[in-house]
Structure to design on (341 residues):
């Protein structure tokens, strides 16, 4: 920040869209700890009405969004339909594009001052192209739209968010990579289930590295971005990669968690090209399978990102050490998840 700009601002009253999700919960928790007024909008009831204002509803409904934004200064928009090959494309466009536009419209009409959007590193994904220590300046949108509706709709949504940045509504987009930790409803539980079921063969390119983000670090980045987000600031109208620890291979990441449950994979690895073919065929006959091309891509191709821009513009650095992050994840798995499910 230059000397003419305040170091940071009071973000006022906050709305967390998708506050019942993994990232949303972490943002809500940190806002409450900082004694902020917090309203949660989610399709499902938030389980602690005593500490937040709860609104159950759909961001695709204009009246609901108008009600949610009333009296709000800062909106954290974390909700979207995530990658799922069994869903029709229309669902992704309805929520990720049209729903996002409802959010923007409600913010503009309700005089919301700032909007922090949770984007994805998949907005710059192009086929099987690897990324190494990628910075925002070197990460344009792909010339050819991705084949999956999730990535396509997240691109449109991010572009819409950045386009509406103005003198009355400051906006930015954060791209946390590989969020993990408590309330993970997909990646870690699915892998544990597969390995327990005997599907324990490793696959992917040996040593393929991936940047991940512990959920509490991702939430911290959202809060910091909001504090530095106002018309004319460095953050306004910008996009940021968010990650934390040193990149590592998927299996190096998973092994300590598998070991805690006395599970392991074989050291033999199926080649990437063969696994991709298998995943393609699997999707055709079983669209709901946990094995799909998206999963194979996540595990098998180098994807590492640089968060120096976030550090420079709003002081982001991870606040939770990796060892503590793993312990918190294990504690949540022990309390909320059973391998017999």
């Amino acid at each position: 920040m230059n000397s003419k700009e305040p170091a940071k601002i009071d973000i006022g009253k906050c709305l967390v869209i998708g506050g019942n999700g993994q990232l949303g919960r972490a943002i809500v928790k940190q806002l409450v700890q900082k004694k902020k007024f917090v309203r949660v909008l989610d399709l499902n009831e938030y389980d602690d009405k005593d500490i937040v204002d709860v609104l159950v509803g759909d961001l695709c409904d204009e009246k609901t969004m108008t009600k949610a934004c009333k009296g709000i200064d800062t909106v954290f928009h974390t909700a979207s339909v995530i990658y799922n090959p069994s869903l029709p494309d229309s669902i992704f466009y309805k929520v990720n594009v049209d729903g996002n536009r409802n959010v923007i419209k409600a913010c503009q009409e309700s005089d919301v001052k700032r909007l922090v959007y949770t984007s994805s590193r998949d907005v710059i994904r192009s086929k099987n192209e690897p990324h190494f220590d990628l910075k925002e300046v070197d990460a344009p949108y792909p010339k050819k739209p991705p084949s999956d509706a999730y990535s396509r709709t997240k691109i449109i949504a991010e572009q819409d968010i950045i386009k509406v940045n103005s003198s009355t509504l400051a906006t930015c987009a954060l791209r946390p990579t590989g969020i993990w930790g408590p309330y993970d409803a997909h990646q870690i539980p699915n892998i544990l289930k597969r390995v327990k079921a005997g599907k324990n063969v490793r696959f992917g390119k040996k040593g393929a590295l991936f940047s991940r983000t512990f959920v509490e670090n991702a939430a911290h980045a959202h809060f910091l971005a909001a504090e530095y987000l106002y018309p004319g600031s460095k953050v306004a109208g910008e996009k940021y990669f968010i990650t934390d620890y040193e990149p590592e291979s998927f299996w190096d990441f998973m092994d300590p968690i598998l070991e805690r449950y006395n599970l392991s994979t074989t050291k033999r690895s199926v080649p990437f090209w063969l696994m991709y073919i298998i995943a393609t065929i699997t999707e055709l006959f079983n669209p709901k399978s946990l094995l799909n091309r998206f999963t194979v891509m996540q595990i098998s191709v180098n994807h590492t990102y640089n968060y120096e821009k976030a550090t420079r513009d709003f002081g982001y650095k991870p606040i939770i050490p990796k060892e503590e992050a793993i312990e918190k994840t294990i504690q949540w798995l022990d309390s909320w998840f059973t391998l017999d499910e």
